[in-house]
Amino acid sequence: MIRDVNRGFKQDGDRVFGGAGLKMMRLARLAADHDLTGLEFAIGIPGTVGGAVYQNAGCWGCEVKDVLAGAEGDGVHWQPADLGFGYRTSAFREGALHGHLIAGAWFQLRPGDGHASREQMATWTAERKQTQPVATKNCGSVFKNPSGDSAGRLVEAAGLKGAREGAALISTKHANFIENAGGATAADVRKLIERAREAVLKQFGVVLETEVEMVGREKPRS
Ligand SMILES: Cc1cc2nc3c(=O)[nH]c(=O)nc-3n(C[C@H](O)[C@H](O)[C@H](O)COP(=O)(O)OP(=O)(O)OC[C@H]3O[C@@H](n4cnc5c(N)ncnc54)[C@H](O)[C@@H]3O)c2cc1C
Question: Most buried of 3, 37, 69, 190, CB within 10 angstroms?
């Protein structure tokens, strides 16, 4: 049976479809409502299906690519193998499909117990609140985790927890987050990113790559 309820949401057997504008958190809840399991990890990911496919969003050891059955856009159906997924990237972000618009995506799930899925999501949400500065203004993880290590651990070990540039500060709760303490500019955030990157390179010889995407141009403070 196919149901159309929320921003193109459809369910067909063990598969669900989300239109590009459907929030990933909503999609995770809709899947649980249909007793389908596999998208619980998405409960912590702000943003839409389109954005999540674009960057192969993930957490708790699962990524979009693990459950993606295909994506649609520009009148084409792309198979997962076409999408060049990597750690927080895809062919839409830096490959042959750059500039293409994702209209929606299918996810291959498994029959499950919606109640258990909701409990898992509640557990992960509580854990996130404990370990990440969720109540602050921030852009999510700033750096990708280098292989076998954690960016937050390295930035913290470099002594930068609480470091500030203007009104941007490295979170004291989790050093891979930069908080806006009120009025931070893109330039403040960029300076802090460069400071953390340089300190980690100098002290540990590790090159940190940003997970956040830089867009536009910075304006100098007037
Ligand atoms: C507090 C916080 C916590 C976060 N935690 C996580 C996490 O645990 N794991 C994780 O992976 N990410 C995490 N993120 C990052 C978050 O997942 C991304 O910001 C989000 O997926 C981007 O989706 P969006 O809809 O907001 O896209 P936007 O920010 O609007 O766009 C992001 C990029 O995707 C492209 N894009 C968006 N929609 C489409 C489309 N339909 N077709 C083609 N391109 C498109 C845009 O052009 C842009 O380049 C976190 C962010 C925050 C703020």
Answer: 37
